[in-house]
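Here is the promised in-class demo. Please do not try to memorize the tokens; focus on the logic of going from shape to residues.
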């Protein structure tokens, strides 16, 4: 007891050695390890001929190996997980290896000594010597201690892998795997065997190994994500790494066709989608964009109405968009709208609010597809394009009628309908934008478009009730000037509508309109006022009130710029009014 607790044993050389148990007492206490090592060294120096010399030397070597491992651990912890040199560890490993080598001179076939020697060399970075020790161990008949043997073979494989001896490592990993799934290193051997095969470009063999690796952790019960949620972070990261390298293996051995063949052969794989993702990701990293997008789309078509399917379709669209493949991208967007647009089976049991990314993509795709089809119709006149554009416009308005783009889409739909001579339908949309939407940006333009549309309808005839639509034109003109008096088109609208009514003899109607207009502040100055007074002058002349006409002409002249070429007509009108008055 005193030996370990108090330092070197105080006994003269040549006297009988104290019992081994006395030296060993307390050796397993961490706080006493250093004292124990010192006591063992002193014992071996004092009693080189002791019967227990070999046992003490062996225990000292074990403690030194343990001390080296602990020193490395402490160095890592002190650096917050970063690797730091631990000189004490190196000294401990070297001394331990020397003592194991010495012990092996008397017991060259001792498997445990060879195992510990290989560990000492491995931990000190002497991989070749470690492999030599392992080879000596494995050259002996298989130990009854199978765990020791399997661990040794696995460590041999690890050393071979670190030295880039991949064929040798593959054989060693396979030897561990042959011992069966109950072997502690079985799963990790599958993982590293797959990597060894990848390093040798044996991609098909690697796929078989990786499949076994995943299947050793995942059951065939549906719900891969649910199973994954119970994995440790390290296990999840390792599984993701395996999936990623499997994507490379599939890419190097036939791509999607190879993937489908292997999945068919395995009948049911609950992580099928993850393998498609991995292959698509590998194609993207290789900048093979078409194949990447087609892989995403193939995944969509496995089950278009699955929970994740819209996300896979969006991934394909993003690939085409990133590669600037317009034609292929448009087709992918068309398929997306067909599968996930309004009325799709996908939404029968789901709420759009739960799929924000899919809804955002749908909104964008409807606009892109509608505008593209509309442009194609304008350039070629193909009614199929017109029909497609109309459908996309209407689908957009069905789901996004309150969005910031809704007014533009409705305006475009109205234009499309007008371009097909569907005037009344087009007018309904223009009128909604003008008088019901409260959209300050589109309302004036829609009102003007509606007025012009009615004029076109009346000009073309085709059974149109001219009186009805002329009345609607005048009403829209009155509202336009009332709602948008500052708009640059307001004077023109006023002049055209008022002029037509005067020409039709509806003088009183025009007077009432002008009186109402001039009572407001907007027509007291500027171009709108000039037109209003000009119309009042014309209506007064038609009623024979030439004095009122002259006065109105003077007001119009007062609101006209000196260089306005229309002043001549106003001056002439004033002169004629004076002349008529006498």
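The designed amino acids, position by position:
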């Amino acid at each position: 007891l005193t030996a370990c607790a108090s330092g070197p044993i105080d006994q003269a050389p040549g006297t009988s050695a104290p019992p081994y148990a006395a030296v060993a007492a307390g050796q397993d206490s961490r706080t006493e390890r250093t004292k124990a090592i010192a006591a063992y060294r002193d014992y071996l120096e004092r009693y080189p001929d002791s019967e227990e010399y070999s046992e003490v030397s062996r225990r000292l070597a074990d403690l030194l190996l343990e001390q080296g491992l602990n020193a490395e651990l402490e160095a890592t912890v002190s650096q917050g997980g970063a690797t730091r040199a631990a000189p004490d560890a190196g000294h401990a490993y070297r001394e331990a290896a020397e003592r194991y080598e010495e012990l092996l001179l008397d017991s060259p076939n001792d498997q445990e000594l060879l195992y510990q020697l290989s560990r000492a060399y491995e931990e000190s970075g002497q991989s070749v010597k470690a492999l030599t020790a392992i080879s000596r161990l494995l050259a002996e008949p298989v130990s009854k201690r199978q765990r020791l043997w399997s661990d040794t073979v696995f460590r041999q494989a690890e050393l071979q892998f670190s030295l880039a001896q991949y064929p040798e490592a593959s054989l060693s990993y396979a030897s561990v795997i042959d011992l069966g799934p109950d072997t502690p290193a079985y799963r990790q051997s599958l993982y590293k065997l797959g990597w060894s095969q990848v390093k040798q470009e044996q991609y098909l063999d690697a796929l078989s190994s990786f499949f076994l690796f995943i299947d050793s952790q995942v059951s065939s019960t549906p719900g891969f994500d649910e199973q994954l949620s119970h994995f440790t972070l390290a296990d999840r990261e390792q599984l993701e790494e395996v999936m990623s390298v499997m994507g490379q293996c599939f890419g190097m051995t036939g791509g999607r066709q190879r993937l489908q063949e292997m999945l068919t052969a395995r009948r049911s794989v609950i992580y099928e989608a993850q393998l498609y993702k991995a292959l698509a990701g590998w194609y993207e990293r290789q900048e093979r964009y078409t194949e990447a997008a087609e892989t995403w789309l193939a995944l969509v078509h496995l089950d278009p109405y699955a929970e994740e399917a819209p996300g896979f379709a969006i991934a394909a669209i993003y690939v085409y968009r990133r590669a600037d493949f317009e034609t292929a991208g448009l087709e992918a967007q068309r398929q997306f709208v067909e599968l996930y647009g309004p009325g799709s089976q996908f939404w029968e049991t789901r709420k759009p609010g739960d799929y924000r990314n899919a809804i955002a993509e749908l909104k964008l795709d409807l606009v892109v597809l509608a505008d593209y089809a509309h442009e194609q119709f304008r350039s070629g006149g193909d009614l199929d394009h017109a029909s497609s554009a109309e459908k996309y416009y209407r689908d957009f308005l069905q789901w996004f009628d309150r969005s910031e783009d809704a007014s533009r889409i409705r305006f475009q739909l109205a234009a499309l309908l007008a371009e097909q001579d569907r005037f009344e339908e087009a007018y309904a949309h223009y009128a909604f934008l003008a008088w019901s939407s409260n959209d300050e940006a589109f309302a004036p333009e829609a009102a003007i478009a509606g007025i012009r549309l009615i004029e076109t309808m009346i000009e073309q005839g085709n059974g149109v009730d001219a009186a009805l639509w002329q009345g609607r034109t005048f009403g829209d003109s009155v509202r336009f000037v009332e709602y948008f008096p500052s708009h640059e088109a307001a004077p023109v609208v006023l002049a055209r509508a008022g002029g037509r009514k005067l020409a039709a003899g509806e003088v009183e109607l025009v007077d009432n309109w002008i009186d109402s207009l001039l009572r407001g502040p907007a027509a007291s100055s500027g171009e709108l006022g000039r037109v209003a007074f000009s119309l009042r002058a014309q209506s007064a002349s038609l009623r024979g009130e030439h004095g009122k006409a002259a006065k109105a002409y003077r007001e119009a002249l007062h609101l006209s710029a000196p260089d306005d070429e229309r002043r001549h007509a106003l001056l002439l009108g004033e002169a004629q009014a004076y002349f008529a008055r006498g």
